[in-house]
Design goal:
The structure is a homodimer of 191-residue chains.
Chain A: H1 7-13, E1 19-25, H2 33-45, E2 50-53, H3 58-71, E3 76-79, H4 83-89, E4 94-103, H5 108-113, E5 116-122, H6 129-133, E6 136-139, H7 147-159, E7 172-174, E8 183-185
Parallel strand pairs in A: 1-2, 1-5, 2-3, 4-5, 4-6
Antiparallel strand pairs in A: 7-8
Helix pairs in contact in A: 2-3, 2-7
């Protein structure tokens, strides 16, 4: 690919990157909490600024607030009663990730130059009008797989593989380790 | 490539790629079917040859058999009563994907040169001895996210973004489309 391969070095070397937000549509409160939580955790860990959740679900929002308190950063889950409003008000390209779309690789040069990108991922139910409302319908391959995977791969293409440093405000951080687990506290004000 | 999975320019341009298998450990039958199914679908769509599932779960195996019948390829879910046996018998590097590990980017050159790679992903419960049994414990960033995402990104780094062609034996395929959905039958013997 054209951007150099990976790592925080790749991130730091790119002078400007788009700001990315995620919109999760078709969430089913009570049925999808784990998958939607995975979508939100991926959005946060791979550098999106927020995830709009349609319909809203306080349980997912609270779970991510707990993650933010421990692990830092400013990522938020924002309840979205109307997915149309989120799409209509977004000031940049809206990319609906769907197995039926055109290959995302063709869009990447354009998306990397954008200032603000909205990535939309569906669950089991995707509203039909979304295909018309999005700027692009884009696929990661043409096989059935997972909205969690599609989101992760596109965020990786846009923003690079996430680095390993603590985020601002973290109470704890991981020390990358060849064997086992190392989690250490972060002194207040240090991250 | 040796496995006859799918064809994209990125894939075809690499002269040799590792054969990749996935091991899902700590699956909880009845609790994790959707997440484990997502792991399996990602393994298949991103070019792994099979997924060992520990403990075995016929429901997941049957779901993926249904996908194979419709969408082709040779991917299989193999029930694994012992994760240790799968790890011990694997003829190449065993990479346990964990948020606590060392950055995966450092390993990629070595993994790309390997003939056979086993990627191990855990669920909520990961057996402690796995950290010692794996050749490498590797992370995609050092924030909590998702085994589905970690697997997708590492497969993408090793094998490229999946292509859009039908797999051998497919009954149907997607025609990538800017708006809407286009799924067409594949005549027998054509894929």
């Amino acid at each position: 690919m054209g951007t150099g391969s990976s790592g925080s070095a790749a991130r730091a070397s790119r002078t400007s990157r788009p700001r990315v937000a995620v919109l999760r549509v078709g969430h089913r409160p009570g049925r999808d909490p784990r998958l939607t939580t995975h979508v939100a955790l991926v959005a946060r860990a791979f550098g999106a600024e927020r995830m709009y959740l349609n319909p809203p679900d306080e349980h997912v929002a609270e779970a991510l607030e707990g993650v933010r308190r421990r692990w830092g950063g400013t990522f938020r889950v924002v309840g979205a009663p109307s997915w149309r409003d989120v799409v209509r008000l977004h000031p940049g390209p809206v990319v609906h990730l769907t197995m039926y779309g055109t290959p995302v690789a063709r869009l990447l040069p354009r998306l990397r130059r954008a200032k603000e990108v909205l990535l939309v991922v569906g669950g089991a139910k995707v509203p039909g009008p979304l295909y018309g409302a999005a700027t692009f319908n884009a696929s990661v391959g043409s096989q059935p797989h997972s909205e969690v995977a599609a989101l992760a791969v596109v965020l990786r293409e846009l923003l690079g593989i996430p680095g390993t440093g603590a985020l601002p405000g973290a109470r704890q951080r991981i020390v990358p380790t060849a064997r086992g687990k190392s989690v250490v506290p972060v002194p207040a004000g240090a991250a």
